[in-house]
Amino acid sequence: MTDNTPHIETGPLEINQALLKKRNAREIRFRLYGLSAVLTAIMVLCLLLTSIISKGYTAFEQTYILIDVRLDTETIDPKGTNRLEDLAAASYKSLLRAALREQFPGIEGRREKRQLYGILGTSADYDVRDAVLDNPKLVGTTATIAVKASDDVDSYFKGYISRDVPEDNRKVKDLELIWLDTFQADDRIIKKFNVDFFTNGDSREPEEAGILGAVIGSLYTLAITLALCFPIGVLTAIYLEEFAPTNRWTDIIEVNINNLAAVPSIVFGLLGLAIFLNFFGLPRSAPLVGGMVLALMTLPTIIIASRAALKAVPPSIREAALGIGASRMQTVFHHVLPLAMPGILTGTILGMAQALGETAPLLMIGMVAFIADIPSSMGDAATVLPVQIFLWADSPERGFVEKTSAAIMVLLAFLVVMNAIAVILRKRFERRW
Amino acid sequence: MSSAMDMQNFNIINDPITSEPKIIARDVNVFYGASQALKSINLDIGANEVTSLIGPSGCGKSTFLRCLNRMNDVIENCMVEGRINLDGIDIYNSGLDPVLLRARVGMVFQKPNPFPKSIYDNVAYGPKLHGTVSNKDELDERVEKSLRRAGLWDEVKDRLDKPGTGLSGGQQQRLCIARAIAINPEVILMDEPCSALDPIATAKIEELIDELRKRFTIVIVTHSMQQAARVSQKTAFFHMGEVVEVGETDKLFTSPQDDRTQGYITGRFG
């Protein structure tokens, strides 16, 4: 081919120095803006984490008091059967109280006595019982047993209650401080890892309250959410992306899905209340209904993420499969879907993480009730982690402050794990073509 | 059909004699929505020879190619009118399942597009899909035969379990050809199969096309007139959605009848 373009004479390129300087300065300025934005974000994150961890780490410890309990056979096992059932049925509270009175003789009057008993946790007698059940030979001896201190005593030893505060405003009174000092002088105050926090349900008593009920409730709820919205979401995305014709109807559907993703979550809660509870009469406060409501909320997220993942599969793969005589369904299920799966799973996990942290819609369907039992099925009344945090943050007792932060840490740990799984899936199954 | 009738037919459409047409296209119109991409195409594709379709970009040659195995079906708003017969069967109007059609009319695309699976699975996919092999041994045999025919066996026989996407561009394209011939099609459509390849890989593919001609009917779309001259026996020149001229490749390139053909092959446009 001949080149007919006329040759134009040009002089050497002249650069306007002032303009160049300005341009470079602008580049640098923009980079600095970006850097400062990132630093601000990191600082805020650090502040948040520091505040939560510094407030919450103490919840993983619990103060115990070592008390010499005289485990006399008369009270525990009067018939001498030595069977575990009989040992378990005995009243250890009175033994514990007797032991306290023995430790501090001269306590008279109902008020002082109650005050004395109050330094132990409300279910401290279970600690004694468990010790006896662990080792039935203790019956008839005097054993030193670690029993749980009450939440106020626990707070005092964790440094949350100051002695300098006037007695009227202090949860631990002067008299109690004297007893506690005596215990401390005898090295009878110990701190143990708070296993109960991970194995108990909710309780009115901070020292007894645990996170397990909320964790199980969250797991049940998420299981329902996943079981509902993964298949529905993925099938919707496949249909819309691979099969549906582009016309006014599919446009309307698409716009609506995008809008639904932006609807405030509490609206979904109201919808669940009106339809699932009032119309269909499903149980209140149940993970079943919670999961259904969260599924409604998560569906748009999953559909949008799945469609994006399907769209990212190059059309050449579809052509290759079709060209070899695969039907459209075979094309999708043999080739397109496996390639889109990492993206779909990432979107699903992120949607699940969002559902895990959701509170507002669950308040509407009654998952905000105080539930001490650990739910054993999808239909049982239950609460979930973020609602548990909300409940504890709302409680007046000093002991719940650290529990709140600890529950936040548990929730964040779950979220971090889920997001990490999403990242790993993406990295591992990412295909290059 | 007698050969006299054939001649008559071809005379009407200015087509040189094709003794055994494999595919007959008559009055084919293709519309993308309101715009017409192909205007009344009449073209015969001879059996066991290479027909190349040349023409400037957007002239409709790829569109015509994709009509031959109904790949246009998946494009929305695409409407095909007219008659295309494969061995006397109307592929659009006789109720022929497009999936079965595509098993008989294979296709190789412009960009090598192996599945992101192993080399073995790439070739074995078609036979497995159509159930044309009954056991693993037959499948192994089929894979080996297809790879040998595609001239790829010696290069990949030690790494059949490695991903097909890890091969070089030319090897990938030969893998795609092996994948296409693994289901024993009668016709192979090639849509600019060498446009993404370097000259050496191109030469290999061209050699391969010449080899494959003995068993398959091949239709190739190409932008390179040298390639058309090298590999094809018949050439059809497309321009603005019409077939301007069809003929023996040698004749078409040496003594084109139409001014537009003349202009295109001498490089005045396109």
Number of helices of chain A: 18
Sketch the major β-sheet of chain B.
6 strands, mixed
User: Which structural class do you get from the secondary structure elements of chain B?
Assistant: alpha/beta
Indicate the radius of gyration of chain A in whole angstroms: 32 Å
Largest sheet of chain A: 3 strands, antiparallel
Cα radius of gyration of chain B in angstroms: 19 Å
Roughly how many Å apart are the termini of chain A? 36 Å
CATH top level of chain B?
Answer: Alpha Beta
Oligomer: heterodimer
CATH fold assignment of chain B? Rossmann fold
Distance between the termini of chain B: 38 Å
Overall spatial form of chain A:
elongated
> How many beta-strand segments of chain B?
10
Explain this structure to me?
The complex is a heterodimer of chains A (433) and B (270). Chain A is mainly α and 433 residues long. Chain A folds into two domains: 61-193, no CATH class; 212-429, MetI-like (MetI-like fold, Orthogonal Bundle), CATH 1.10.3720. Chain A is 63% helix and 5% strand. Chain A has 18 helices and three strands. Chain A has a three-stranded antiparallel beta sheet with strand order 2-1-3. In chain A, helix 4 (92-103) packs across helix 6. The two termini of chain A are 36 Å apart. Chain B has a single domain (3-265), classed as Rossmann fold. In chain B, helix 8 links the parallel strand 7 (187-191) and strand 8 (217-221). Chain B is globular. Chain B starts with a helix and ends in a 5-residue tail after the last helix. Mean pLDDT of chain B is 87; it is low at 1-17. Classes of the chains: A mainly alpha (433), B alpha/beta (270). The A-B interface holds A 1, 245-246, 314, 316-328, 330, 334-335, 339, 431-433 and B 69, 71, 74, 76, 99-100, 102-103, 106-107, 109, 111, 113-116, 125-126, 129-130, 165, 176, 179-180, 183, 267.
